[in-house]
Amino acid sequence: MQMEPEQLEMYLMYKAMKIVDPKIDKVMSCPFCKYFEVWTIDNSANFFYCRKEGCQKGSCSVCFKEFKVPKGMAVTEDELEEMKSEGGMMSHYKCYEHKDIKEAWEDALEKGTKRCCPECKVGGVKDDACTHMICDNCNTTWCYLCGKKEANCDKSDPNGNIYRHNDDWNTNSKRCPMYLTQIGQVDERWSTASDEEAKAFFHKLLTYKSLKNFFKKHKSKEFKNLCKVFPSVANHGLDLKELKRMDLTIIKR
Ligand SMILES: [Zn+2]
Ligand SMILES: [Zn+2]
Ligand SMILES: [Zn+2]
Ligand SMILES: [Zn+2]
Prior knowledge:
With 253 residues, the protein is an alpha+beta fold. The protein folds into two domains: 79 residues, no CATH class; 120 residues, no CATH class. It contains eight helices and nine strands. The strands form four sheets. The protein has a three-stranded antiparallel sheet with strand order 3-4-5, with no helix packed on it. α4 packs antiparallel against α5. It binds zinc ion (4 copies).
């Protein structure tokens, strides 16, 4: 998935900060305005308080929903009721309890939707042409299908360029085709009609592979609980039965 310019800027800034101070864990931004803070590993707060004049909203650091923040130091009876109510500040403690598994689920999903440059890890967007990628950020040439950089790709001529990675792809499992629409010639699950369809199928395989790993580490009961706490997770829209029975080999040769 392509990063918006603002996101890319924030990502690069975050990366630079992390080099300066490895304790920096993440950039937390207010869901309602542009205010953000840099949190370190030691800061594992449940709640995020926006300090921007005019916004000053409180939000859950896990589900990002807003809750009412008590006005003064002394909490009134009404405010306490509000805090304890459904959607109130205290109802978000259960979000925090499921924070790690929620993050693991989201990471697994994200891995399926994007392909990153093997050198600098910035996401690459494939156009509908070939599988050769040139990173916008660091200029590395890499292969969209196996994700390896040109230098590490298996080639018919070790000194050759990425085009030599495409030779004999239909019989050699270390090689990749130049176009995703070629794969259907040897593996009928893949669309030969359009690159868009073939790409969608590729990302489905990647997503399923990554979710299979997730379900190896987390029991289905844990996942059911996660769905109860976060409707956003419950509405994943994926066919988990298909995931279980599908052969996830990228190219069946
Ligand atoms: Zn704000
Ligand atoms: Zn929450
Ligand atoms: Zn790069
Ligand atoms: Zn490749």
